[in-house]
Write a structure and sequence with these properties.
By secondary structure, the chain is of the alpha/beta class. Among the domains are: 49-99; 224-299, no CATH class. The chain is 33% helix and 12% strand. The chain has helices at 55-74, 79-97, 99-103, 112-117, 137-149, 168-192, 258-268, and strands at residues 10-13, 33-34, 154-157, 200-203, 208-209, 221-222, 229-232, 243-244, 251-253, 276-279, 283-286. The protein has a 3-stranded parallel β-sheet, with helices on one face. It has a two-stranded antiparallel sheet with strand order 4-7. Strands 5-6 form a two-stranded antiparallel ribbon. The longest helix is centred in the middle third of the chain and has 25 residues, at 168-192.
């Protein structure tokens, strides 16, 4: 188990979404550490360790940087910028010198039984019909669990491409069996390790799909009604909250606006969703505007 300070607090496997996952009105200190490596393809995180034989050079460079930083502070450089840079350097040093931190990204000591639990050998359509399914979700989620065990507060994992404007049936049949197995494995593993009650496992997409199939055999963008899966972290187990109408076009019961869901998730994380941050132009804005706690989601 690594110390909480050994690893970045926010890690994206293999990278954050291009349309989200940024820092918003917060500084870059809070940005994601993107691995840019897929454990499912046995790729290792680049530049994540000190090359053998260069340890003394690394220590000399660290000492030189400390001397330069001290001189800049004496010249009254921008303290906020220096503080951010200092955080980055400390974080990088911890990662480069901590064997526990580096071990959190490795699957070498994971058993075959654990890999099977997460469905690493589960596929969608067979043979040449398997056109869309990306491999490696099981391995990504196992690394995510290891990072949580090592003290990382927030981990995102990307999987597949569900923007199915074309051929939605075959895309779904490729993607869903591995996703189903991996979700089951992750929840089971967190429970067995005593981590489920203190970890929120959230499966979501950017929005839903149109109730009707288009002329290309696909479904287009639809934000009025769609589903999420949430496990652990104090959320009620085994509950189906809300319902859609017969075509999945509109909520029919217990509609859950996104701001209410996010407010509730922040509440379970111990974060005040009504806290104001300074937006551009020093304008205060709430983390979640207008959201409220949904007690029915909580156990």
């Amino acid at each position: 188990m690594g110390k909480r300070g050994d690893l970045p607090p926010y890690i994206a496997i293999p990278k954050k979404l291009t349309t989200g996952g940024g820092t918003g009105f917060l500084s870059s200190t809070y940005g994601a550490f993107e691995t840019n490596a897929d454990p499912g393809k046995k790729q290792k995180v680049k530049d994540f360790s000190i090359p053998a034989g260069t340890e003394r050079r690394f220590d000399r460079r660290l000492s030189a940087r400390q001397i330069i930083e001290k001189r800049l502070r004496a010249l009254e450089a921008d303290p906020a910028t220096l503080a951010t840079m200092d955080d980055f350097y400390k974080q990088a040093y911890n990662v480069l010198t901590s064997k526990q931190a580096q071990g959190a990204f490795s699957l070498e000591d994971e058993t075959e039984a654990t890999l099977k639990l997460y469905g690493y050998d589960t596929v969608g359509l067979k043979g040449p019909d398997n056109k869309y399914h990306p491999k490696g979700l099981a391995e990504r989620l196992i690394v995510a669990r290891r990072l949580v065990e090592a003290g990382v507060r927030f981990v995102t994992v990307n999987y597949g491409a569900f923007d199915c404007h074309v051929d939605v049936k075959r895309n779904t049949l490729d993607h869903m069996p591995p996703l189903d197995a991996a979700i089951s494995g992750m929840v089971t593993d967190l429970e067995l390790r005593g981590l489920l009650d203190t970890t929120i496992f959230w499966v979501t997409s950017e929005f839903g799909r149109t109730p009707r199939v288009n002329g290309n055999g696909g479904r287009d963008h639809w934000a009025r009604c769609y589903s999420n899966i949430i496990a652990g972290g104090g959320f009620t187990r085994g509950q189906i909250y809300g319902a859609s109408d017969s075509t999945g076009a509109e909520p029919a019961r217990d509609a859950l606006p996104l701001e209410d869901l996010m407010h509730t998730i922040y509440h379970q994380l111990g974060i005040d969703a009504g806290k104001e941050l300074l937006a551009f132009g020093t304008r205060p804005i709430e983390i979640i505007k207008g959201g409220k706690l949904v007690a029915g989601l909580l156990g």
